[in-house]
Amino acid sequence: MTSTADTTQELAAFLRARRERLDPHDFGLSSRRKPRRTPGLRREEVAELAGVSVDYVVRLEQGRGLRPSVDVVEALSQALRLTPDERTYLFDLVQQRPRNSCKPATTAPPQLVRLVADLSPLPAMLMNHRYDILAWNDEIARLLLDFDTLPQSQRNAMWLCLMHPGMRDFYVDRERVVREGVAHLRAAWAAHPEDQELADRISEFAAHDEEFARLWGERDVKVNGRGHKVLRHPDVGMVAVHFEVLMPLQDPGQRLVIYRAADDESQSALDRLLPSSPR
Asked: Pick from 93, 128, 144: which residue ends a domain?
């Protein structure tokens, strides 16, 4: 599809198809009220469920150039009982950005825990949008910190960077690392306005760290998908790493972070740190 007219017609066809596949009995609607000549719900029933007028549903299904608001698209998604993928498709068709409907990830699925382990000898970990660390392999624990020794409330990459005594001087370019972390958290905060735990974290950081409070006030926004860090490791010295952040398609609320040595000297340092890991 390349034109607005095509998208409008696809929206109309999609809404009709999803309405017609629904079983009235699933909604407690009696089929004896009127004979049903076509399958699925009637337009007036969808309109009632979505809280819009029948005429509005008719015009949408006739492809008459309407662009529903976010609230209307959300209401139609619920009325038509769309799957998450169908809901996203509907939002894409009307060129609106959906509200985040996923609850924040607080645990790692077993498949991703296994994947993090299988990435050895590359240091890897799994985080959510708050920077909570949900899973990790031995390599990243040796490179950064033994997360098993921390209470769950402290297994947060930003908390460690700002408030853990052993991490204050860990990053050579600490200001840049903190600045990028704050910019990511601001983007996450806007995308998850319902996440009170994230809001509480941000308040905690701002109250206890002047640098965080200053950077938060600058309102920079950036989602960092890859980058470079230089670590000051207490056992093997300087380690320069490249990192890549990947989002699993089935679990978009989680971020898989993978580190790789940026140069030969750093690879040698990692080899000394992780002597049991095969190359």
From this structure: 93
Token reading at 275: 């002597």
Which uninterrupted H or E stretch holds 244?
A: strand 237-246
pLDDT at 78 over 70: yes
Q: What is the CATH number of the domain that holds 139?
A: 3.30.450.180
Task: Output the pLDDT for position 2.
Answer: 43
Same domain, 248 and 117: yes
CB 75 within 8 A of CB 51: yes
Q: What is the pLDDT of residue 3?
A: 46
- Up-side HSE of residue 71: CA atoms within 13 Å toward CB? 2
Place of tokens 């009220």: 33
pTM (two decimals): 0.78
Omega into 98 within 30° of 0, i.e. cis? no
**Residue 102: inside a domain, yes or no?**
no
Sign for the CA dihedral angle at 147, 151, 152, 157 comes to negative
Handedness of CA 160, 164, 170, 171 (dihedral sign): positive
